[in-house]
Amino acid sequence: MRDWNTQARNREARLARAAHLTQGKTVEAKDAAALLSAVLEPGDRVCLEGNNQKQADFLAKVLAGLDPARVHDLHMVQSVLALPEHLDVFDRGVASRLDFSFSGPQGARLAKLVAEGRINIGAIHTYLELFGRYFVDLTPRVSLVCAQAADRAGNLYTGPNTEDTPTIVEATAFKRGIVIAQVNQIVDSLPRVDIPADWVDFVIQSPKPHYIEPLFTRDPAQISEIQVLMAMMAIKGIYAEYEVNRLNHGIGFDTAAIELLLPTYAESLGLKGRICRHWALNPHPALIPAIEAGFVESVHSFGSELGMEKYIEARPDVFFTGPDGSMRSNRAMSQAAGHYACDMFIGSTLQIDLGGNSSTATLGRIAGFGGAPNMGSDARGRRHASPAWLKAGREAREGRGLMPRGQKLVVQMVETFREHMQPAFVERLDAWELAESAGMDLPPVMIYGEDVSHILTEEGIANLLLCRTDEEREQAIRGVAGYTPVGLARDKRMVENLRDRGIIRRPEDLGIDKSLATRDLLAARSVKDLVRASGGLYDPPKRFRNW
Amino acid sequence: MTQSYYEASARERLAAVLDPSSFQEILPPSARVTSPHLRQLDTPAAFDDGIIVGEGRLDGQPVLAAAQEGGFMGGAVGEVHGAKLVGLLERALDTRPTAVLLLVESGGVRLHEANAGLIAVSEVMRAVLAVRGAGIPVIVLDGGQFGCFGGMGIVARLCDTVIISEEGRLGLSGPEVIETTCGVEEFDSRDRALVWRTVGGKHRTLLGEAGELVADATAAFRAAAIRALALTPDLSLEALEREHAALGQRIERFGDCHDAVDIWRALGIEAPERLPLLEAADFNTITAGKRA
């Protein structure tokens, strides 16, 4: 008769091998390597928690230091490759296969290891996809997670950066995998329980508190007047016209400028209470002035942001916080919210082609896109209506005899030239060449042109919803591409026609006086202004200070 | 909205600090007096070589003024740049204005023309002392993005007073130079809080190196500059010896301190760790009478 319980018996065998290392669930940091060697088996699928903010850095170091003769060919499944150790495991031969979402700063080294045949990449996912596969065909056998604190029983308190932990632990614990947590401290009683003890097998107090990256802090001092102008156009030409109330902002100075113009420019247009009330967003420090001005009713977050702890705790009406006052974030929930419950995504990119496809992929780097593809795509499963969603859907379908439905606003915001005078508009994305050189199935596109509703540059806004042919679409994009080669190759007559029809709108068409686009419009011009706006509650990391 | 001094250009600063429309520039950009060295190196030049000099009025009083533009090579001093500054100071000996204002923003000598720049800075120093010796106060305003370092840091300390904002920085070697030569353990130039705590306006004011701390606003700098017009510096030998003695005691008083905060505590300031967060007015109230 077939044995239906092999996973549980395998789990018991692993636990038995580690039994001599534990007292209760606690393992000493010095025994961490022995623990991992005992519970891991070659070829295991392992999730090493890598997030945008907090990192299981101690466990990463221990894993990377294991003897590859004993532990090898691990299949790593993790959302973010943030630390050098995340790649050291491949360099040292402990792991060989990888499924992930985002590699950010490790993108160049990842590309090199792939080229050398040291890493076999299964796929680059969006967050929701990867989380989905944790429950389908990429379920971790062993998960190495990260929390702020544990109690003696093994309950975990994640602190404000809950991030991926609940998703990883749920997938692992309920499929008879093994969950090992590194914590900053072990205490008698936790401020709140984020992960119940019976989902956790081992707890290790790490020698140093885990690393947290302040990823979403943008210094207002670095916002340019071009970005102020673009933010004015976004607010007047898109937010106001579509009455966008539920939204996600990408990371970057372009969107930080919008956040800082809400209490000044948007307020002067009488938009308070009419736009930007509900957000799926990390707690951006740049949002503080808008929150204080009463624009923002709620913010649900993927993860927290370093320095925002006290401010969040003091604004419980706005943020999702536990009874202890600290934030509970959750990347999977916030990604779902961003995809289905938001009317707009707006963010920057590096390259846009004539089809409106955009990509941040560059040669020699395999970076992935994290959450942008979920946020920046029309949620075709969505059924509930809102004014913004209905208006966008109407514009895209008018006169075509189609079944009426809504559409998400997906706005790509770029200056026509990026750093080093690189044109943001190109005939062909670098993604094609990257796909070829790295042997990918498809060019890595962050946001597909068919999902993009608007492209916003300092030259104007191109409303792609209103375009009816591929040619119109191409000319609409060329029409806002300024002095880039793509822009200079526009058909002037056709672009003027698109302008007459409101498909392209210049700042002057929107009634925006360019001379007013100065940094004086920013509700905060420095990080210190953000601290002032928060009433001293925001405590920025040292590297963002000039005091 | 207040105009930020930190963010303003050198020309905007002059326009905001001096009486409206009173400034007359000498050797303006239209004169095209540019650096001969940069041309040889095929490096972009500025038509004013990064400094604006001229005469104007402050609170109705005639003054000479110079402003360095951090946006051009970090305000670094080259041959032409330095010569314009020396010329302005020497003009003061002829025209005898009420004061000379130096709106400094400079990383020091321009490395592209190192020897000429070094000579220029030494000439500036000599000229500053000559102007002071003639009884004309030289007033420094320091609140730009690049701070005031290297040779210009020495020049600033030769003047009668330094008006500084918290964002302003004053020193000899800049943070990156210290890190490069002494190691990151000695000074981590990327730790911005440490940088400003050490070379920023508040610490320089507490050490007595700057005369007045003002908010980052052009209007605040103007008001402080007007107040400084009334300075009557004591240039006697006794005063000089007193200052030397005080400087000598500094190492005895604070030699054991590892951080600016330790010095603030030694100065008898309660809860010194809150100082960086205080606005200029509160800072001045709390630290009154407690400066080194």
UniProtKB/TrEMBL annotation, chain A:
GO terms for molecular function: transferase activity. SUPFAM superfamilies: NagB/RpiA/CoA transferase-like (SSF100950). It comes from Insolitispirillum peregrinum. NCBIfam families: mdcA. The lineage of its organism: Bacteria, Pseudomonadati, Pseudomonadota, Alphaproteobacteria, Rhodospirillales. Pfam families: Mal_decarbox_Al (PF16957). This is Malonate decarboxylase alpha subunit.
TrEMBL record, chain B:
The keyword Heme does not apply. Keywords: Transferase. One of its GO terms (cellular component) is acetyl-CoA carboxylase complex. The keyword Repeat does not apply. One of its GO terms (biological process) is malonyl-CoA biosynthetic process. Residues 1-237 form the CoA carboxyltransferase N-terminal domain. GO terms for molecular function: acetyl-CoA carboxylase activity; carboxy-lyase activity; transferase activity. PANTHER family: ACETYL-COENZYME A CARBOXYLASE CARBOXYL TRANSFERASE SUBUNIT BETA, CHLOROPLASTIC (PTHR42995), MALONATE DECARBOXYLASE BETA SUBUNIT (PTHR42995:SF1). This is Malonate decarboxylase beta subunit. It comes from Insolitispirillum peregrinum. The lineage of its organism: Bacteria, Pseudomonadati, Pseudomonadota, Alphaproteobacteria, Rhodospirillales.
